[in-house]
Amino acid sequence: MRADPFESERLLMRAPTHDDAPALYEAYRDQRVMRFWSSPPHESVADTIAYVTPHVDDQWRQWVIVEKASDRAIGTLAAGERRRGVMEIGYLLAPSAAGKGYGREAVGTLIDLLFAEGARRVFADTDPDNQRSIALLMDLGFQREGLLRAEWHTHIGVRDSVIWGLLRDEWQPQTRARGQRLRSSRV
Questions:
Q1: So where does this one cross the membrane (predicted)?
Q2: Is 24 within 8 Å of 48 (Cβ atoms)?
């Protein structure tokens, strides 16, 4: 599925390329980052290339998060339509980019985009022990909607899943909250 580029004040979100893999490998090989991911840490840059390269039949749109100041890939975003008007999101940030507000900025701008495109609901599926992700979702206004017990069989065992949801009417757009405007980019 095609992922058109978009941007925020400090970040550019665009389709991933093979050239992004070495920078993204920092995150995808990290045991702490990948602890709550559905797949184990990557063993090589080739694993990261295969993982972030969009597939023609994929139902997910994928973006790489690029820090404008350094032109370096610092993470990934994804969005997939589960039902008409209902979008699931996923995100990952390199450890070197943590603590700078990039996660909130990238995910918030993605939510702006999805609601502008007509989504009525956005949700995320998190491990109940993934406190950083839960804090980000709560900060963005998501509400805990449910617990799915023994939902995922992962590299760390069978895990529960917490579903977090946000409705369009509940969303405080990043464009209003930060005085930014959603900018579509043609890269």
A1: none
A2: yes
Domain count, the chain: 1
What span, in angstroms and rounded, lies between the C-alpha atoms of 91 and 171? Answer: 19
Q: What is the mean pLDDT of residues 68-73?
A: 96
Report whether 120 contacts 111 (CB < 8 A): no
Contact between 133 and 124 under an 8 Å Cβ cutoff? The reply is: yes
- Whether residue 123 lies inside any domain: the answer is yes
pLDDT tens-place string over residues 116-159: 999 999 999 999 999 999 999 999 999 999 999 999 888 889 99
> How many other C-beta atoms can be found within 10 angstroms of the C-beta atom of residue 84?
8
* Interatomic CA distance for residues 100 and 93, integer angstroms: 11
- Report yes or no on 137 lying in a domain: yes
Domain that holds residue 128: 6-180
> pTM for this structure?
0.89
Residue 132, domain member (yes or no): yes
Residue 1 located in a structural domain: no
